[in-house]
Amino acid sequence: MTQAEKEQDNGKEKEKEREKDKEKEQQRGVKRPIAPPAIPEPLQEQIQSNFVVVIHPGSRSLRIGRATDTLPVTVPHVIARRHKQSGQPRYEDAWLLREGLNKPESKEQRQNGLKMVDQAIWSKKMSNGVRRTPVSAEQARAYNCQIRPAVLDSSSRVKWTNTSHHPSHLVGEEALYVNPSDCYNIHWPIVRGQLNVHPGPGGSLTAVLADLETIWSHVIQKHLEIPLKDLKYYRCILLVPDIYNRQHIKEVVSMLLLNMGFSAIIVHQESVCATFGSGLSSACVVDVGDQKTSLCCVEDGVSHRNSRLCLAYGGSDVTRTFFWLLQRAGFPYRDCQLSSRLDCQLLQHLKETFCHLDQDISGLQDHEFQTRFPEAQALLFQVRLGDEKLQAPMGLFYPTTFGIVGQKMTSLQYRSQGDSEDPHDEHYLLATQSKQDQSSKSAADRKAISRPGGALDGEMSGQGGIGELSDLPRGCGSSSGGGGMQGEMELGPTRSCLMGAEMGETSICSPLQENCNHEPV
């Protein structure tokens, strides 16, 4: 017998012995250990960046695009809706006009603010060490009053939006160029970073959400070339202001998920996203928008609620102030009106072209601009300007130059008021937390209140030390609080301070200034 045959026989004998052992174990009732079931690892779905849509709604512009796009698509955040009945009164949201401008104290307040601006400009030396030579508005006015426009073309080649097919709505640039004689209402769905809810036509929360859905859907279809039926394959990133209304954000998220059909959504704050996009872990973010200026401190990707501040003025107020300064200097385009959409566009363009904060540019300088309006000639104007180009943007640091009286100008964030549809809102968390946690937080609140807070020019005295459970008034009736959900989802309403003639004493300096020695007005 060969060696291979011997090994084969030995293997058969060993198998027979194993089978006998198994039979004996079964007879004795011995159970073999059960191997634990193999649990497969959960599969992580890989998210493709080109299937992520980023939406950044603003008061004047809507920025939207894929996460892979280098630059977003920017369109005017406006919609024109056709009247449902003939003879319906026409309604249009204001662009540059706002409440508090036509008060008896507005003119005096503007003059006082302009004096402070002139003093600040004169006190700052130029880079060569020489002080600027002040230029009065009368010097420019003497020249500008003699200017007559030159006709460039008999036709401006700018036309009104064609509404012969009676579209139910128009979005963006088409809405801006709707003929005032057509039966359309003009709506801006966001004002000063918040939903434009008002008692007028189209001012209900449902109507504003419908405007947002229509505008965003139109831009996604036209500019991003994404069919609405395919949004179920896309995810959405929604950027919201640092100070926001929780209930409004909840309704917008429901609209994006249920009405528009996005598969998922994440809501994040503008300041945090700005630091992330800049590659910074910590920063003090100052966002000067069209209608608001927000300040916030971000540390390690977290927006500190106690540092959030929203000032209710921005680029549109600079534009309006620049127009006032142009009128003082004899603006040659004398038919310009703040109530006209096209004139507001022109003023916006002039501000972006001429205004600056360069101290080295001084003296009178000649400029020119064109006007191109539908059904009108294309005209060329010459204008001579001095310090007006620097005075207008300086209004951001001296907001009394804007002439806004009796309006709420400063907003803070405080704790959410709860939501009846949220079973785990802050009221539930407060009621279910332990007594030890409540006592420790109350002690922390008392310490925070006893500490002197850093005041912002008399309008935010006691801002420091905002407690988690406190809702106490702080300086000018402002209130703030802590709490919130991880991921910056404490979307609460705001309380604000007053600026203007309704206060007994109002500081004439900006909250952005420190160590101000000016006397109250």
From TrEMBL:
A Pfam family hit: Actin
Location of the region described as Disordered in the Swiss-Prot/TrEMBL record: 1-43, 433-491
Biased composition (Low complexity): 433-442
Segments forming a coiled coil: none
Domain of life of the organism encoding this protein: Eukaryota
Spans traversing the lipid bilayer: none
Segments of skewed composition (Basic and acidic residues): 1-28
InterPro entries referenced in this protein's UniProt entry, alphabetically: Actin (IPR004000), ATPase_NBD (IPR043129)
Family affiliation: Belongs to the actin family.
Protein name (record): Actin-related protein 8
Species per Swiss-Prot/TrEMBL record: Lates japonicus (Japanese lates)
Lineage: Eukaryota, Metazoa, Chordata, Craniata, Vertebrata
